[in-house]
Amino acid sequence: MNNNPYQEVDVDVSVLSLYDLTDKDAHQSLYIAVVLQALLDLTKPTKENEKSSIQLERDQAHSWIFKEVGVTCRNFSDTCYYAGLQPDTVRHFAFNIINSEDIIDVRRRFHSLL
Q1: What is the rounded CA–CA span in Å between residue 90 and residue 29?
Q2: Is residue 6 part of a domain?
Q3: What residue numbers bound the domain in which 18 lies?
Q4: Share of the chain above pLDDT 70, in %
Q5: Is 97 left (phi over 0), alpha (psi -120 to 50) or beta?
Q6: Rounded to an integer, what distance in angstroms lies between the CA atom of residue 64 and that of residue 27?
Q7: Radius of gyration over alpha carbons of the chain, in Å?
């Protein structure tokens, strides 16, 4: 039995399915863009001597996506709901992106959607 709460989510399939959702509804597209921007902020590569605001954005995105209780969690869940996404699926997806060996390519794909 696998005790890992984060199951593999195929990055290619998930990015394509997000793209398919963006064509259907302008309001839904806005919420999807919010989720994508959080994923971009979360995965921005760390650089030596980077501005503290970049680290703050990375930390805030991590907190927004991965908090499981409180106002932050409710805000994330509501945003996912309006985007037509399951919060747990987005969390699993984010976890897989963070641990991806090709995070630059994943970020490039997200940028192409925005």
Answers
A1: 15
A2: no
A3: 11-44+54-113
A4: 75
A5: alpha
A6: 20
A7: 14
pLDDT in tens, 27-66: 888 898 899 899 999 988 888 888 989 899 999 999 999 9
Determine the residue type at 36. Answer: L
Task: Tell me the pTM.
Answer: 0.72
**Number of residues in the chain:** 114
In the numeric block, which tokens belong to residue 92?
């699993």
Count of structural domains, the chain: 1
Assigned domain for 31 exists: yes
Helix, coil or strand: residue 65? helix
Cβ atoms < 10 Å from Cβ of 60:
14
Percentage of the chain exceeding pLDDT 90: 28
The verdict on residue 4 lying in a domain is: no
Q: From 42, 16, 38, select the one nearest 100 (Cα to Cα).
A: 42
